[in-house]
Amino acid sequence: MPNKAFNTDAEYVARQFFREVTNFRIPYTIGRNTITTSSKSLVGPGRFQWNAGGWFGSSLGGSAWMIVTSCFLVFHNQPTLALVPAGGFAIVLFASLLLWTRRCRIYPFPALMALLGLLAIAIACVSIVVASYGSPAALVAMNWPVSIWPTVLVCAIAPGLMIWFLFLERSVTASQQIRWDYKVIYINKLVGEAEDHDGIVSGFENGLKKLGDDGWELCLEVNGGVVLKRPR
What we know:
This protein has helices spanning 4-22, 52-75, 79-101, 108-133, 136-141, 148-155, 157-175, 187-191, 197-213, and strands at 27-30, 33-36, 180-186, 217-222, 225-231. The chain is an alpha+beta fold. It folds into two domains: 4-42 and 179-231, no CATH class; 52-175, no CATH class.
C-alpha cells in the first residue's frame, strides 16, 4: 500500500500532466490554495461551434442598425428617444461579449439561442418604440416603413433563425449520436510503483497509451483519478 506522501506526489504530477494534455478547466489543490487552469472553447455536439468571426459578425450585424437609428434621432433633436436604440445595441453587445468570455463553460448552440432570443426582444422593443414616438421627419429620413407589416417581418427574423438553426442542430446531432462506455481509473494504478518525478510521468504516459490502444479516450479528471470513454 503506497504511503500518503507518494499518493500526493503522484496525484499532483499526474494532474499537471493531464492539465497539459487536455487543457481543460481543471481545479487542483495544493495546501489551501486552489488553482484553476486555462481552458479552450467547448466543442458542441452538432453543427454550430464557437467562431469569433461568426459570433461577433452575427451580433453586430443584427444590432448595428440600432446605433445608426440612434444617430438619426439625435440629429433630429430626439436625444431622449435615441437612448432606446443605443441601449438596445449596448445590451446586445454586452451579452455577446459576456457569452464569448464564458465559451469555456457554455456550449455554442445554447449561447447562440440565448443571443438570438435577446436580439428578438431588442429588435421588437426598439422598433415599436421608435415607430411610436419618432418624429415624422426622423422616420422619413430613416425610410421607416409606414405599414406595420415590414416591421413585423423584421421582428420575425430572429425567431425564424432560431427555429431554422434548431432544426439544423437537431438533424446533425441525431445523425451523429454516439453511445459511450465510461471507466474510472485511479492515478496510482496508472503510475505503478514509481516514486520519482520522471518515473511518475513515464508511468502515467505508458498507462494512458495502453488504454488508448484499447480504444479509451481521456475524458476528464476527478479527485484521485481519471475518467475515460470509448464508443460502444
